[in-house]
Amino acid sequence: MLDAADLPDDIAALKAMLVAAQVREVRKDERIERLEKLVAAFKQAAFGRKSEKADPEQFDLALEDLETAIAAVHAGDEADSPSDKPHPKPRAANRGSLPAHLPRVEEIIEPESLICPCGGGLHRVGEDVSERLDVIPAQFRVIVTRRPKYACRAYTDGVSQAPAPARLIHAGLPTEATIAHVLVSKYADHLPLYRQAQIMSRQCIDLERRIGRSSLRSSKPASSALSIRLRI
Hints:
The chain is mainly α. The chain is 46% helix and 2% strand.
């Protein structure tokens, strides 16, 4: 909130500030109206009459639209907030050490020369050690399953071939690990399916949201059986 001392003395500047404030209020009212419509549609899809309820896919779409609208409101508020205020000076904090269970990749940086100006050799008397947190981006891969066919040249009837391995989703593209990743990202990390599709598209993986939803529906019986098994 601005103080009286922060206001300019120029009348034209005051008028410009007033107009800008009114524009921000109009934008906020428009965002609130849009959110109210999305909330009403979401309630109708979730709690309406059976004849008016939407299918699960429409329910997920309404939820994702609501999350997108909320993110847009936050982004708009940050854009409308004045940025000319001085930022507080960051305090020096003791960041502590990184978790010990993380693997360490050490790099040793030696001086360019270990020869003393007097002509003798330098001896190691200590070292400075610093740690930084690094990350290896998630990498998708394709599991290629080959099942060779064998037959006898003398006996022409019958071909020997190993049976196809069982899949969690019949004729589905994602593996069990991919389905687990999607489930954890959606329900534990609250990452909507459309955002996961955007992340996968950066690696040229065209995974439509309807495919993701079918994977979720197909994985529900297996996840329920797994939770029951874990309780035993």
